[in-house]
Structures are given as structure tokens and as C-alpha cells.
Amino acid sequence: MSEVNITPLLFNCQSKVVDQYVVLDKKVLNVVLMPDERYAPICSRCRTICKKVHSYTDRDIRDLNVFEYRTNIVCCYRKVRCPKCGITVEDIGLTEPGVRITKRLAEYIVILCHFMAITDVARHLGLDWKTVKEVHKKYLLYKFSNENFGKPRVLVVDEIAIHKGHKYLTVIIDWDTKKVLWMGKDRRVDSIKRFYNLLSDEQKKGIEAIAMDMWKPFIKATLDCLPNACIVFDQFHILNTFGKIIDKIRVAEYMAASKEDKEIIKGSRFLLLKNSENLQDEEKSKLNKILAINKNITTTLILKDLLKKLWSHRHTDKAKEFLEYWCQLAIDSGIKYLKSFVKMLKKHAHGILSHCKYPIHTSIIEGFNNKIKVIKRKAYGFNDIEYFILVVKEAFFSN
Length: 399
Ligand SMILES: [Zn+2]
What we know:
The protein is of the alpha/beta class and 399 residues long. The chain has helices at 103-115, 118-125, 129-143, 189-198, 201-206, 216-225, 235-256, 259-265, 269-273, 281-293, 295-308, 316-332, 336-347, 349-353, 363-366, 368-378, 385-397; strands at 15-23, 28-35, 52-66, 69-82, 86-89, 154-161, 168-174, 180-184, 209-212, 230-233. Helix 1 (103-115) packs across helix 3 and helix 16 crosses helix 17.
């Protein structure tokens, strides 16, 4: 093995190979590097050539594997007195400052991370997963450090849940290019404003419409920063809110029902939320039994199907007329939960009717959730939200 000359493989480096040996049972190739005194040391911080050597020190650096042997570089290098930085270490060209793996190994890790889970990359290379994560994170930070948002015309703002039910991230997408422009660590007003403030005045002026749900911080931040953009509330979220109303009515009706009727209503939660066209025969017959005994549930389901028609209107005046008609029907039903829903609809009417001008929605983000599940499996250690955001961005940037 010692007859194989590996010096050319380290040609970029300002050091010389003084020894190389294999530890067979450990499957390790050790390469010993010493400073090449023909070169004056270069400060690793400011790249000034330093004349004064302070001391000599060494450390182990991992390089790409050679065959099935892990390559360990025992690297002796100089600490220098830099006229600008004080005592620092020399840059021998092998690694980034403070990193214990070579640049080429770092590049290889980045390639592998594209296809493999970081834990698998770590196992494959015999490294700690935290090292792999840091290398990958550093690369992604660099990649996204000079983001150019382009000239977005229509935006989509929504949240994604990362731990079921608690932690939410805000995602902002360019409707036309489907690219993730930005992700925030929470869904507060300040966070969203931070994104808007990254936009130039020209970019802000160019934004015509934004699809979102009725989450107050989204609305407030948008009104404050982009007062001329048209807010469009997402159809799916509104119908979802109505689904919660259906649920409340179901519970209230169940509580008030006789013992026999309770038996009929029991277990109908998902049945009532389902689209009528998706019902199986058995479900249809159960639903018919409920409708036969309960007027309020019947009325609510009719109103649910009717409400969906609101989004088939393309003219604002017609849609407005329809919305008013629907609200009146709901009020006339006398069901108290419908009253609060009508109040909410009226309060948000402007953003609901604006779908006529901009038929946009946030479902594009709903579709991300499956992909995000895969990312969660692939990338380990998501307590680091910053890293998670970077990985998600990368996944959707390369679409
Ligand atoms: Zn320096």
C-alpha cells in the first residue's frame, strides 16, 4: 500500500505527505501531513501571508474514503501571528475554517443528502449525523443567502403544521412559478411582515393578489404592508370552517334528541362532513335516516351544498347577491350556530368575493404536506427549525 503515492491527491494543499499507512483491522487509511515550509502560512481568517509562526499543532481530518477504507488525515499545521487577526491558524487549503472534514468530503455529503436521509449518509460515511447535518445546513444557507424573489404577481400564504397540531410554519409561494419564496418560523404578524419588508417597493407594487385563510395575523400584516393587494380568502378554509359548524350542530342535536334518535345520529360525524357524491350506499342509507328525523341537520347539509355554489360565480355582483341570499337562508333557519357563521362570512365578504377577480386558492400548499412528511423522514433532527425550513425550501425550489 505504501507504494501508492497519494501526494498528487492532496496537491491543492500547502502541506506535504510524510507518511501513509493502513490499519487493516480498523479499515482506516491514515495520511500524515506536515507543513511544507517552502510556503509561508496564510491566515485562515483574512488570508494575509504571515511571517511569524506561533506554534505547531495537529488534528484529525476526515477525507473521502479510499475503497472501503476510511481516510483519516493526521494534519500538523501552524498557528500563526497574523498582523491583522492576532493568533490564528494557517489555511492549508484542505478544509473550511473550523471544520474537521475536507472540502471534497463536504461536497460529497451535499450530493448524498439530496438522495438519502442524513442518518443514512452518516452511517455510510462513518460520521456523526450532526456533522452531516451541519455540512448540509451550511451549504443550504449559502445557497439561499442571496435569494431573489423575482417579480411575483400573486402570492399564496398558508401555514404547515410540523408537529401535529402545535408548531406552525408560515409558507409563502409564488402562485405563477409555484416556488417557495419564503418560510417563517411561526405565523405571527411580525414574521410575515419580515417577509414583506424583504421586498423592494417595486416588488410590493407588483403584487396584485394574495390567497390566504382567515388567520388574523396574515390579514393584518398584508393590510399594513401591501394595502393595495387584493386579499382572497381560500374557499377550502371557509368550507372547513363550515364543517366545524356542522359538527357543533350535530353535537347539539344529539344532546337534545330522544333515546331512539340518539342511536340514529350516533357515529355520524364524518358522514355529515363528507361530500354527498362520495358517499357509499351504506352511508347514504344512514344519512337518509338522520335526515328523516332531524330538521336542523337536514337544513345545515342543504346549506353546505348550496354554499359551495358561491365559488361558481364569476361576476362579483352575482356572487354578492348569492352570498346575501345564502346568509338570509341561514339566518331564517333559526339555528344559532349558523348565525355566528353568517357573521363571520359578512365580516370577510370582501375577501371572499374577490375570488371572482382572482380565482386563486391555498390548496397548492395543502399538497405540500405529503412531500413534507417525506422530508421529515429523510432529514433527522428537526428540532432545528432553521434547518427544516432550508430543506423544505430546497425540495420545492428544485421542482
Ligand atoms: Zn488574519
